[in-house]
Amino acid sequence: MANSEVFVAGIGAACGLGWGKAALIEGLLAGRDVFSVLARPGRQAPDGSTAFIGVEMPEPPDILPPRVARTAGFGARAAIAVLDEAWREAGLDDVDPQRIGLIVGGANLSSREHLLAVAEYADRLKFIPPRHGHVFFDSDIVGLCASTYAIRGFAHSLGAASASGAVAVLHAAEAIRAGRVDVCIALGAVQDVSYLDLLGLRALGAMGSSRFADRPGLACRPFDVDHDGFLYGEACAALVLRRGAGGYGSILGGAQVVDGQRGPEPCGEGQSRAIAAALAQAGMSAAAIDYVNAHGTGTPKGDEIEAATLRSMGLQQAWINAGKSITGHGLAAAGAIEVAASFLQMHAGALHPTRNLDTPLDPNLRWVRGGAQSHRIRHALKVSFGFAGCDTALVLGAPP
């Protein structure tokens, strides 16, 4: 089956810019500043020693029946909200449920809620609710989605760290091409982190410091000389993939490779292999790419190696931006919401700026900075890289 026969028929999204894809694209193009000190319970150390900066979204809309909503955590309710938006736009009520699949990108998704549960039930263990017997599995979000909507083909989750959302899109496209289903939903789930996770990420040197604590809007600086790490941002997105061509555009090619790293170390060789393989599957050269949605976390080593990779792959002619400068780093959801943002920019005929890109690491690359840039995307490259050497690239095409 030709690569062009998989297209995006529906999108649902949520992040600190608000609920829905309209809030996402409007906030991105405006370059809105939504960074602040994280306030959700469990995100700051109880002794007051931390002041982690990032982006948090409003509470999810009430979609589930109250008796079900009481058993669903924050991330699960967010997943239902974005799935509902994408499902309705794609008109999936008219599709045979046995021909619909679901892949949820993300693993170890609810550490904050587990931490809060430990604190709540530590002195009354006999009163732990029965739901704790299954909600700690990542498959709980899968089951909630499939029990709420008519998904009866296949459904599972996968983990590829920060590349999870992009890998979910890649696997969903492959499932359609293989004929397993006619429709497959790729959902990047909320990585609901706790202060323990944030402390660990800071200890790794991956997360930004507190030097901008009094000016949170300046803290996230992908590809800028003055960067010092990523900033967490709650995010969630769902993309409905179908056979045919049209909609928001097509998944023309994709690849995920492993570069042999265990931890956070980026690898230019692995990144280049993923990009080359994705372009080969799409049947095009780097010269055909006119827009790159970068991974762009703001980590010094990560940004430097990614910029060098894009340059070495011959992508100097393409416009480049980094959504994490506006939404923060959604971890498991990052790849999915950035694929969604790429298609929404395609539809809008405009590219969002990269905030705080005052002094680019590589001034020879074609950065979108300062404000939104009018541009009609024809072929886009989305790259997404995760801990443990998960290097992913997707080639996206505009609709006919």
TrEMBL record:
PROSITE patterns: KS3_2. Transmembrane segments: none annotated. Pathway: Lipid metabolism; fatty acid biosynthesis. InterPro entries: Beta-ketoacyl_synthase, Ketoacyl_synth_C, Ketoacyl_synth_N, PKS_Beta-ketoAc_synthase_dom, Thiolase-like. This is Ketosynthase family 3 (KS3) domain-containing protein. SMART domains: PKS_KS. It holds the Pfam family Ketoacyl-synt_C. Residues 3-398 form the Ketosynthase family 3 (KS3) domain.
